[in-house]
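Shift notes (night). Ran 2-isopropylmalate synthase while the centrifuge was going.
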Amino acid sequence: MSIDHPSFGRIDASRVIIFDTTLRDGEQSPGFSMNLAEKLRMAEALEELGVDVMEAGFPVASKGDFDSVHQIAQKVKNTVVCALARSGGKNDIASAGEAIRPAKRGRIHNFISTSPLHMKYKLRMEPETVLEVIEAGNRAARQFTDDVEWSAEDGSRTDPDFLCRCVETAIRAGATTINIPDTVGYSTPEDMARIFNDLRTRVPGADKVIFSTHNHNDLGLAVANTIAALDAGARQVECTINGIGERAGNAALEEIIMVLRTRHDVLPYTTGIHTERLLRTSRMLSTITGFDVQPNKAIVGRNAFAHESGIHQDGILKNAATYEIMTPESVGWTRSSLVLGKHSGRAAFRDKLRAMGYDNLEEAQFNEAFSRFKDLADRKKVIYDEDLVALVDDEVRDHARIRFVALDVTAGSRRPATADLVLEVDGRREEGHAEGQGPVDAAFNAIRAIVAHDATLQLYSVGAVTEGSDAQARTSVRLEEGGKLVDGQGADADTLVSAVRAYVHALNKLLVKRDRAEPAALDA
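Came back to this:
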């Protein structure tokens, strides 16, 4: 059975709408803040990936959130741009409507809690009042757009009869998409199947709307719950790149897509996703946020297609299908034979980066990356793909306020360590000198001497990008200020330089986060 939708026209029953909330739910994660330029880059990548809807932010949260949604709405050409709003928020829906006004296709996504626990302790509302808010919120949203989504926050723990009443109210008030989130990741696949089958058979008008599923991963069941909801009639899935999101995250877009593609025999659904762009989109998000995916992460982890067991290697050499259920190339991995070294030129370096998915570097970024590559090639005998990813990621991050320039350190067992640091701050060259208990402490104190701040260091971790004593160092830093957490990463052949790059990356993110204020009752 097909459905007519205001943004997509007639939708066949086999078509699944991909709703990406990386820029909204994903960005709510501790340490994952993005500035405007980074959000615009990510929005462009999501559109190139082929997502149908991108939730660009929560406009009423702050001027920065409003501006980012508004500018994404201006920039995006084909993807529906969605803004989040509370159903009963005083200014939420008007702010969302204004933010998406430039969009070729815009959506307002409004929500309210419906579970007994949330209504009693979070909203302090009676069920009948919640129904009135649902009615008013969706009617208000329809004044700005025909594409309106409504979500029952904590819907998976809502009384089934009351959930049916809520959904019926939202449909009657003009909602065209109904989303049932497993907000706290509590449900099992059997629960999700029951919920959607119940709603589709009991609620008047259910055959005229798209049902959507939004699953958190607290019990590691987000993707499984998403698949169960699809089997029960949901035709929109809400997900994020790399599965980022609050607490344990959301259902991972790349995992859902490859489940549908690989098991098309039992899941006969189609999407508009260009799977060969999955890896580069994943890497872009990791670069922007400073969070790498774990090595054994499905689809995009560096071990996803690695085989160390002799039995496995033997099978792969004879027939890749023995141990690979999908090809690496299908999700964007390449098996390039081009080896780079100290004599490689700009053309070879550019071709290698393009093969790895870095095809949108600005000329200044490319020039700096090439310069760092040549420096690295003088120090390292073998340049691995991982080395290139590490150094290029440093350059494509947005150093809007603070940028590393140079570092000199003296250290030893006979005297305190000292650091002389040069940073570019808001376009001005600034120098700082400091002592410390060791070289890292001295370098971080030098940063503080140049850029005054009250953030405390919560995490400092150093690892090697590749094997060998000449491997690049990759450093992770976590800063905390006023309850706000940010993570930064840096890489360099010099461990101390990588540490400073990581601290500077985190500090840039902290400056973005200082100006953001989240309104009460934000979740969904």
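The chain has 16 helices and 16 strands. The CA atoms of residues 49 and 274 lie 5 Å apart.
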